[in-house]
Design a protein that fits this description.
about 375 residues, binds pyridoxal-5'-phosphate, about 40% helix
Length: about 375
């Protein structure tokens, strides 16, 4: 019996989430073939992916290299922290949401000394408070921040922060998980030492691996530093380099093929610029439409990323579970809020999502808010 039901797949709900997100049908179909990890074709696909990611990030291949890492995005963040930062190092972490906080938790677990600068969940990361802490702590060797803080949808500016720290000899780590491929990033120009993202966000692949774009000269100095074997970013890199694209340990073959296809589709769409424009159009349409239905955005417009939008509950006894299920019944999956500051929920603008989808969603929301209140 044919178990793979395409018709069912086409009526599957649209994921308006920060990833995993709705992927194209071609990306899904690529996964219908099984591949061996020693195969030359698979290794060539891996090398293509490593090269294409540098292109997406506008990183010069002379200076930068890509290391793919099995697991979700957090695995690559943890691999980077524990490989990049030596036992006598100290990392300064800028925090304005759950993902910055997660890096601090990782540092605790690994046993890395860290200083946290907390900006609060509703504010962008800025340079001055970072410099103030640095002035008091000359022992800082590394700096880590999140680019698009998916907790709220805030986009943190990398410039002037990263260049300023690089100029002071500090190694910089950027979690660009939910922005890479969806927001233009010029790695060469910004000059961060490590940038981390994953397969299932703005490149529009499926979950299964993450990747780190690292400055070759910096990564080359990290041999033997990693505190664990599986998450050793240096060893992982050497395996790709020494064996023409051979992954260390079993790799998510189907995911890699799907990602290769997703990268191709990104280039066909017109590259990062075109994709950003589509996401930004979705975001503006969504934010304006929701505002007209009584849902106020949580984040000020200047700090808002095109990736995901947070909305405050329209009134104190708003029932998110009922709202979620009403939308799900109409084919849309949204996301709960993640901030403690205000009762909120999130709607993602990324993935295979277009103007018409946003319009259909707004129509469903408008019918929901106009229905008579339940009798208590
Ligand atoms: C998605 C995401 C991560 C990684 O989350 P995983 O669940 O481990 O994939 C890290 N940082 C940010 C900003 C993210 O959006």
């Amino acid at each position: 019996m044919e178990r793979f039901n395409v018709a069912e797949q086409q009526t599957a709900p649209l994921l308006l989430t920060p990833g995993p997100l709705t992927t194209s049908r071609m990306v899904k179909e690529t996964m219908l073939v099984d591949h061996g990890t020693w195969d030359d074709e698979y290794k060539a696909v891996t090398e293509d992916v490593r090269r294409d990611l540098l292109r997406v990030g506008q990183a010069n291949p002379q200076d930068y290299t890509t290391v793919l890492m099995q697991g979700s995005g957090s695995f690559a963040v943890e691999a980077t922290l524990q490989t990049a930062i030596p036992s006598d190092g100290t990392v300064l972490i800028a925090i304005n949401g759950a993902y910055g906080q997660r890096m601090a938790t990782m540092a605790d677990r690994i046993g890395i000394r860290h200083l946290d600068v907390d900006f609060g969940e509703l504010n962008q990361v800025t340079l001055q408070p970072v410099l103030t802490v640095l002035a008091e702590h000359p022992e800082v060797t590394h700096f880590a921040m999140v680019h698009s803080e998916t907790t709220t949808g805030i986009l943190n500016p990398l410039v002037p922060i990263i260049p300023e720290l690089t100029a002071r000899g500090i190694v910089t780590i950027v979690d660009a998980m939910s922005s890479f491929g969806g927001v233009p990033l010029e790695i060469d120009a910004v000059g961060m030492d490590y940038l981390i993202s994953s397969a299932n966000k703005c490149i529009q692949g499926v979950p299964g691996f993450a990747f780190v774009i690292a400055k070759r000269a910096v990564l080359a100095q990290t041999a033997g530093r990693a505190r664990s074997l599986s998450l050793d970013l240096y060893d992982q890199w050497r395996c790709f380099e020494n064996n023409a694209g051979k992954w260390r340990f079993t790799s998510p073959t189907h995911t890699v093929y799907a990602f290769h296809q997703a990268l191709h589709e990104l280039f066909v769409e017109g590259g990062v610029r075109a994709r950003t424009n589509r996401y930004a159009r979705n975001e503006v349409r969504l934010r304006k439409g929701m505002a007209s239905l009584g849902f106020e955005p949580l984040i000020a417009e200047v700090a808002q990323s095109p990736i995901i939008t947070s909305f405050k509950y329209p009134h104190a006894d708003f029932d998110l579970t009922a709202f979620y299920h009403a939308l799900k019944d109409e084919g849309f999956i949204i996301y709960p809020g993640k901030v403690s500051a205000a009762a909120s929920f999130r709607i993602g603008n990324i993935g295979e999502v277009y103007d018409g989808d946003v319009d259909r969603l707004l129509d469903v929301v408008s019918r929901y808010v106009e229905q008579p209140a339940p009798v208590r």
